[in-house]
Design a protein that fits this description.
Layout: H1 2-24, H2 32-52, H3 63-72, H4 75-92, H5 96-117, H6 123-134
């Protein structure tokens, strides 16, 4: 999952840059909102490429340093960044190119968020944890209530 989300981030960053440039051409049609959304989308795509694949931006001096700093942070920080920035571009301009470019980065953020949550515990561990924390019986035989039989006088 770690390498899959990194690969999707690299692919999504590149697609976001390309589609962001198409949105910037909206200035020719007088659509300022889509031009601003395209600028944000290009910047988001470039930031994702800097973080995920610093080898793609070797012409900049401090790219590896930025990537190392982000990799030392908790995974949920990267997830929040990758979920928050594409939403800003979508607010500015809702078009197919914005949805496709920003959507890939958004999905990458969701994958990083799932990594931050961690693995699911085995069934027996969840049963024992539920039994100790809430006082519920671990007998899951399907009977909802265990009442004694009525007494007759």
């Amino acid at each position: 999952m770690k390498y899959g989300s990194r690969g999707l981030g690299i692919f999504g960053g590149g697609i976001s840059i390309i589609f962001g440039l198409f949105n910037c051409l909206g200035i020719l049609l007088g659509n300022i909102d889509c031009m601003l959304g395209g600028v944000i989308q290009v910047a988001t795509g470039f930031l994702v490429l800097v973080i995920e694949a610093p080898c793609c931006c070797m012409f900049l001096d401090q790219v590896q340093l930025v990537s190392d700093i982000v990799d030392k942070r908790p995974v949920w920080n990267k997830a929040a960044l990758y979920i928050g920035l594409p939403v800003l571009a979508l607010v500015m301009c809702v078009s197919l190119t914005t949805i496709a470019g920003s959507g890939l980065i958004f999905i990458t953020g969701i994958l990083y968020g799932m990594q931050a949550l961690g693995k699911k515990a085995p069934l027996e561990a969840m049963k024992s944890s539920a039994a100790t924390s809430s006082g519920i019986s671990t007998d899951f035989s399907g009977v909802a209530v265990h009442n004694p039989p009525p007494t007759r006088y």
